[in-house]
Amino acid sequence: MTYLDKDLTTIHEALVNKEVNPKELADEARSKIAKTNGKLNAFNLVIDNEEYKESDSILCGIPYALKDNLSTKGIKTTACSDTLKDYVPVFNATAYEKLCDSGALLIGKTNLDELAMGGTGTTGNTGIVHNPWNISHMAGGSSAGSASSVAAGIVPYAIGSDTGDSIRKPAAFCGVVGFKPSYGLISRYGLFAFASSLDHVGVFTRNVKDAAIIVDHIKGYDKKDMTSIRDMDDVSLVNGLDGNIKGKKLFYIDEICNKDNYDNPKTKEMLDNFDSLLEKAKDLGFEVYKESVDIKLLNAIKPIYDCISCAEATSNNSNLTGIPFGPRGNGENVMDMMKDARTKGFSPLIKRRFVIGSFILQKENQEKYFLNAKRVRRLLVEIFNKLFEKYDGLILPCSSAGAPSLEQASDKITRNDIILENHLAIGNFGGYPSITIPCGFIDKMPIGVNITGKFKGDANVLNMAYALENTLEFKNQTAKGEF
Amino acid sequence: MFTKELMNKYANDLLFDLSEEEVNLLLEEFDVIRENMEIISNIEGISEVEPLSFPYDITVSSLRDDEDLQNISTEDALKNCHDKIEDVAIVPKVVG
Amino acid sequence: MAYHVIVGLEMHCEMKSKTKVFSPATNAYTPSANTNVNEIDLGFPGILPTLNMECVKKAIMAARILNCEIPKKMMFDRKNYYYPDLPKGYQITQNTMPVGVHGNIDVECNGSIINVSIQDIHLEEDSAALDHLDTMSLIDYNRAGVPLLECVTDPCITSADAAVAFLDTMCKIYQYTDISDADTKKGQIRCDVNVNLQDDNGNYITPKVEIKNINSFANVKNAIIYEYERQSKAYEEGKMDELIQETRRFDEETGTTVHMRSKVDAIDYKYFVEPNIPPFIIDDEFVKEIASQIPMLALERKQMYTDKFGLDELSAIVIVKEKSLADYFENCVKIGIDAKIAANWLNGSIISFLNKEEISISDFYLKPEFLKQIVDSLNEGTISSKQAKEIFNKSLEERKEPKEFISSDNKQISDEKYIEEVIDNILANNEDNIAAYQNGKTNVFDFFVGQVMKETKGKANPNITKELLHKKIDKS
Fold this sequence. Notes:
The structure holds 3 protein chains of 3 kinds. Chain A is an alpha/beta fold.
């Protein structure tokens, strides 16, 4: 009998009925990690005790995993970067602290792309994270280990972070639910900053209700985060799940979903799946509309993301010099020492991103690159804010195909990035609540559909996903691959 | 024009070195970046638009109270520092 | 054509607050390294800044005093550069929207008023402190995140004296408003000085030189004078190639400035809006309320003291040197002490006492009310000015109100013990007279009373004296 591949309510009831105890659950998680980590490489650290606070929360005594870029006091946190090798934080991320207070049982820290800057799950210093549906495929990134561990049924939920699509894309690739709430609903305090104006903390689960439960536990105004939302403390997301979506209006974007724009047969298959999904949605009582958005603006999504995220990242990671923390570099003088620490500490991908970011921020380029990117960010956000006044949510496929094989994994900036692969960043530009749920398979690899709604409309987005999930047969699925 | 020298200067300003291979890859990426940036700059009427630095126009009307003190211990402060003497971090002598 | 020196100043001042500007760590100087710190000050991964309300209010107050335009919102930027004293790798400061711009302030220099125009004033954080030893440098993060106000003047100051007068005025403003102790001895004030030469048509004839990080007014003055001489010498001699736009530092030992880096090497700080601090709305009401809390400042008070209270210039200058002295003085006047008399006491006995004891007026025992007791008695003629001085000292010595000494020293003496002592002395030397009295010569009693009065200069209370005498010499 295993428990951790079940939903939270079931596990909680098993605990209450004393069918199982937290120690046994922790043992189950550890033995699953021990069995799978050689193939999946989801974890870089496993907690060998069962310390948790007694509480009356549903989360009490249930193991979970944390992406290794959330600060955990006394527990090594490295963001899978050599610059933070052996770094043991002295303070807790607010989200983690809230989970501790709920009695949640941290079982391990999950691998990510180095410093969360990547979309493949292959660039961390602890190696490649594999997709449990097929270990020759990527899990997606950057929250690769969190996605992989939930999909593999090792833990019922895992915490991740999302700057462009770092929760919602790997969730799609791994066939699980990935939810990034409104910007500021969960405090960013203690989340290792990648791009502050785009960074979100979020969650992986295997069903929508669990996602609502977790976010209910970790959301809330935090005086340590000045961008934290102040007026949603009383909102209960889980209580908003009534499945009643009659008359809710969804829209999709023709420029993104029009099959005529794509040659790849897998993408066509993806869009066929999407069409049939829309039909199901209509049957359920949703109204579905086609909308048009200026293609020039849609084409700008990736450039804007690259521009803003690289620029903010280069500054945010300027603290990694090996002086107050992190491995010291060698050098006769202090500047050489800092330089050596950074040269050795960062992988080539990271360095390239920083050079690009720094270039964008240079005095002579800021206006043209950085500020223009922020201007177009506003244009896009204004368009979507208007659309969200008219509609309850935007529905789109999460990607142009399932998880690519590991040979195809590349984080190189290339031409002709297709919008279908990049549109999830809209959710970060506008801080919108955005959820991915599994919606089928292509070539035995899972695919996902995304619903995004207006800022602070988290309850509505979750409820729509909840209703849709119930008509699909992927709720609570775990990966069927060999691992 | 993007050159190897320029890439190395940028990297140097960021306090790290690039390998030959990294420089070449960067040069390739920079060509794309520049094209991508053109996509942004070619959008009409953007000069009129106020840059958006946050996901929405966040403003705050209250701030941190000065009364609320929170220090960490010296031990914690230097726990992750790999070169220290007693209560201070040390580095090679900083000149100028 | 004639030319003169033209100076622009960037004055950094550490502000007074309980916590730091972007972290809740203690903002105070302590000799114990790395004790007033929070994870935020060390730039650990995942930290976020939170803006301190007190610092914002004080920054707005300073901007108001400098007659600056204050924006509708408060915003911050990151200044990105690498240095071992900068744990985050950037400093949070205000570049695009300083809390105050386009201001000006009157400064008194050598007896006349000059108006210094202010480019901007902005709020930012300090870096960690580096202590340089022979082979290594020590980092103390206590100073990291300490609030700083940086005030930048336009290049409009035309002498070293005026530059110092400006700095002095600013320090007084900060002290009067409690924005800062502005104590140069504690390193709370640091200046960058921009110097070049301008001809009488207003054209710059030498490139601008910036002298970084000067921490005393004397050095500011010396650096300007040195730089003026260096630049004019090169200019006069036609050696313009010696002059470049550059950053220099002042060498205290040689009294000269030394090249650090040229304009070509200027650092690009890649400023951009701090994404973790959303704009704080500054509404008019908020500014109004802060403005209403601005106390009357030194220059204004000095003028009031000379114009309204008739003090001489020098006394007024001494009194306004510290706000607490000026407050003391005004309290004296308020409770009815004549201004000039109060000023004399303050600038005479009081200041010399404070200096001798090395205490500040806030720790001074003789509050204005107590001083008034002395002054009033002096006016009434109950005490002489010599006695006033004695009472002043005695009161401070014994920490008792002056009136206690005024009644005993100068009016009737009612202290029984004291009178008894006097009587005992007299009786000891007059055994014959005691015997005579006891043998019935009752008029000798008056002799004894007379002796006591003589001894106490007529101040002994006659009734007490008589009573005591009767007790001592009457036959029981």
